[in-house]
Amino acid sequence: MSDFYSIGIYALLCAGILAYIASLLSYVHAIRKEQTSPAVAGRSLSLVAGILIVSAIALLTRIRQAPPVTSMAEFLILLAAIQTGGALFLDYAKRLGILTMGNAVACALLLATAAAILSPEAPQNRESMGSSLHIVIFLASLVAFEVSFLSVFMYVLLKKFLKAKGHFWLFELAPSLEVTRRTAMVSLFIGFLGLTAGFLAGYLFARQSKEGPAWRMDVTIILSTVTWVGYLVTVLLGSFSRFYSRRYALMNMISFVLLMVTLLSTVFFSGLHKL
Amino acid sequence: MKISIVGLNHKRTPVEIREKLAIAEKDLGRALGTLAAPVERVVLSTCNRVELSFASDQDFDPIGLASSFLSAYHGVDPAAFHPHLYAHDGAQAVRHLFRVASGLDSMVVGETQILGQVKRAYLTAHEAGHTAKALNKLYQHAFYVAKAVHSETSLASCQVSVSSVAASLAEKIFQDLSQRCTLVVGAGETGKFTLEAFQQRGVQRFLVANRTVERAERAARDLQAKVVPLDSIGEVLAQADIVISCVSREGYTLGPDLLGRALAARRQPLLIIDISVPRSVDPAAGRLEDLFLYNVDDLETIATDNMARRESEVLRSEAIIERETEKFMTRLNFVKSEEVIRALRARYEALAEEELKALPEAERKKIEPAIRRLINKLLHQPVSALQNGEDSPISADIVRRIFGLK
Question: Does the model's ipTM exceed the 0.90 cut?
Fold first, then answer.
């Protein structure tokens, strides 16, 4: 990677980190001062950060001459971009400002990690379009599951406050119980569809790969299958159980933990999925 | 430029007089046309106030104008309402309009409905051609100030009446109340304000259950609701999303068994507002999953907390309004000053041109630069005074009057 591009990538990542930090500080200020206009500023700053990340991805794609999913650093940058897109969409559409606020923290950490481990040299094994599609679909489903998890968490908190008949100013930033429920269920469903599609894309790619049937015993695949079953149970519970039972919320959270373990397995355990 | 607001409101005028002077929104355009005076005007008429805004470069009597307009339009003797009129001029009028648009002058402080009413009143006047630069700028700024107050403070969310707290809780659970069904248990007067608050938030479907069917039918007529005998309440509970219980008898009307069965048949939460004294809903029902039970003490506690918050939010809102009033007045004076400076320069140059025209060409060429320098020197002091901090409505108007500027 030439020096110019290298500096450009790092500059965009640093600018993105600063924009996320500024966004988070705006939200904190909004909560402390009980004002909504700093929250609007926080949202705008997250949008700026998103644009900076997308620019970094575009620059990486140009450098690598391939989709930017060739290393863990690129994976993290792509994850930050999709996450920011999802959070901002829900913030604008459903007043879920709390998602943008949480996303700012997560993405600042993701970008900082990515900047720390980003290698200027292009990896030797280039990913194909098939495997890139598989990764992008999984990332999108990961973001949908994150939204579902956070919505469930917010629902549990809101319900607790309403039951306790307390008042907390965060109520003003939070949407209604109905909106959190619908968001959790819809995003869970989208995530489940994405996970299933990601499996199919991965299966089609694996059939053509040189590793052959060895893919079936890969740790990540085993854990992903368990996660898929967990989410299937959650989707079914949501379809049949009364309103929003504790079982549904618990299954959602357990499945999300499984998902996180699966993600970590790509870093630490899986030989075939290792980035 | 003189800006004035004259009117009467719920604070100083009984409803019997206000209702005689109210003007329906659809008649505002026509009503404005009946005012035969060369002033900009906007009329705001709501259930709690009738206000007329005027603006003009020429001198006018705002109270006289408003009084004669209202008297002529409604055929009411001015003596009947004159003592209740208030009038604000200049910065006070600007401040008053900002307060009204922000909901600070409303019966329910912080309500946002008034902003829509002010916008419609302004648009009606604007489309009918009764506003010009002054009122256009004033009202646009008022909308901006109202938006700033609503976004920079949490005034609108500080509900301080039991009924509005109950309605806010319902919105916190159900988002869109227009799609929800409310079951009213009991047909007494105690629930009236709560029902009104729910109606204002958009609830359209009501069921009324009462021991006495005749009283239930009377209440149902007001709400355009369906009547349910009290004994059959178990059959309709599953349909209701919100239950407002205002029963005046001993013993619990709703218990955990009945409510548990209703919840099992629903896939939605259930909000119960028990404003009966003594309570008519068994407190044990509050332990049911997905059931939210609030009695009158709970609502009053929230309302009291909100009252304390509202006081600080009102102070913050007033600070925003004060800041924006100053900004608007400074801009108004700046524009006024600029107009006066241009008019004064034009006057001097016209006078110089008149004198120079009478001279032969050679002499004119010699004297003209000196004349121009003289004009600049003569203008320097008044222009500096108008531009640099001594610009007040009085200064600009006095200069205009002294020099006979248009």
Answer: no
